[in-house]
Amino acid sequence: MNDGRVTTTSPDACPPAPALTAMPREEAERVARVYKAVADPTRVQLLTMIQTSPDGEACVCDLTTPLGLTQPTISHHLKILVDAGLLTRTKRGTWSWYSLNPDHTPLLPIPQPTP
């Protein structure tokens, strides 16, 4: 009866594995949040628009028309990017302005839009 343990006695079996270490769980959860945040095409578009804007920042009101989405939808996507640590938000009057988080070490490069 097999109790779930793997035993190898064949000479063709894999050699003993080198000492492997897992990423700490807290770090893995942070990385997963980042990957989940950029797994949506709208969020990738938002990141590239903000990254390539003349001042490196954009107001929600500037992002709705190019994407053809409503302000609440854009705000939802931006909140996810802020929560993942990819963007920072600054409140100016009634509008929020977003820029890339300078403290964030990118796990993957934000692609530049092709002309």
What can you tell me about this protein's structure?
By secondary structure, the chain is of the alpha+beta class. It has 4 helices and 3 strands, in the order ααβααββ. The chain has helices spanning 25-37, 41-51, 60-67, 71-83, and strands at 57-59, 87-92, 95-100. A 3-stranded antiparallel sheet has the order 1-3-2. A hairpin with a 2-residue loop joins strand 2 (87-92) and strand 3 (95-100). The longest helix has 13 residues, at 25-37. The radius of gyration is 21 Å and the shape is elongated. The chain starts with 24 loop residues before the first helix and ends in a 15-residue tail after the last strand.
Describe, in short, the structure shown.
The chain contains four helices and three strands, in the order ααβααββ. The chain has 115 residues and is α+β, with helices and mostly antiparallel strands.
Based on the model shown, name its key terms.
alpha+beta; three-stranded antiparallel β-sheet; 115 residues; elongated; 4 helices
